[in-house]
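A note from the maintainers: we've had questions about how concatenated examples are separated. There is no special marker in the raw files; a new sequence line simply starts the next protein. For clarity in this README we add a label.
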Amino acid sequence: MNFGTVGGLVGGFVFVIASCLLAGSIKAFIDIPSLVVVLGGTLASVTVAFPISSMIDALKTFKSLLMKQDMGIKNRLDQFVKYAETSKKEGKLALEKIEIQDPFVKKGMDQVIGNTKADIVQKIMDQERDAAFEVDMETQKVLDKAADLCPAWGMIGTLIGLVIMMLNLDDPSSIGPSMAVALITTFYGALFANLLFAPMAYKAETRAKENYVVRGIIIEGILSLAQEEGPRMMQDRLMAFVMHDAQFRKQLEKENSKNKGK
């Protein structure tokens, strides 16, 4: 679990609830119809804007965003060095015996085993990486759109509440409570947009960019195999790629330190 993400979300709601308690009663800020209007309306609008398949993928990815992603830079480096050793000793066809779970790696390995030229391999893998990035970014688009629409639905709920309040002006005692309930929908819209949807959209974008660069490491490894480079050349090529990226350099140093501590 990604404790930073979960802690931030929980902490944000805790601070809001604490503020409500300090202001008076938490019950004054709870209104189920207002909640239904904001979240239900936002969901309906996003469903109109995006295909159902994108909505389902977004829900799956949302769950994964709450979990910590292990980029496993060192494992990937070691893995491709072993692939190079196998290819050097037994030939490219020996790579066919290796069981590969990652479909992106499998796609590239099939090209290597089929003796596809390196420039064509790179073109194919670059296209696959771009396509995978677009799929990853779909979740960011869904969450970003939800963040845009949520406050608007808060305003719609407020307008509904104001209309109901105007219809009951003959009862002055109901005006105050009715106005409070009407404003709660605006509160819900701003709360979910800024504490949930917008931050998670940014996180989805960050995760997509991380995956894009990780696939870049894979492409470098696949190209090295396609050009029949040895294990040492493979390691130098991948290390140069990783060390060029500050985030992955820190990640590799972190993984190396963790392994030394075992």
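[label: protein 2]
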Amino acid sequence: MRASSAAEKSKGQPAGVAVDTEAHPLRLLVLADDFAGFFRVQGDVQLLEDTALPRYHRAKLARFSPLSGNQAAIVDELGIHFVSMVSLQETLFIAQENVDSLKYSPADTFVVACEKFNLNNPDNTNLRIVEASSGRVAAQFVWKKSAKEGIRTLTWSPDESICLRLAPAESAN
């Protein structure tokens, strides 16, 4: 099995296609027990921590944008950190505690974030579609089931012109 990387995606190459690793190092986003960090592949077998990129302690989720690989999103107890693979800087932070699931849209324009439903605040919109470049909330919903299920209720067209949401049936209660 081969890990995909930001360099391959940013060059528009499918997984398995050779990329000039001197000009565009292969980067891996590693989520460990107590941190999320970036690593780069040097040579054929050496994996080095990429100290040019930030490291996030107590991170619980980490994702590369799937189409271009030009952005990564890291979730910790404070919120969502967005890191540019081009500038090697954190470019955006969204304060949103308790995010339990995160997924990019197919064209990297949006992230869908869901937190656990709070019985003490039943009107809290805990399922949000957020623009990945600005942090603007495009849509938000109350989701009472598992946060991981909430992410799966959205389906996008490849160009993101359409987003469908499967809504739970209203109960008799």
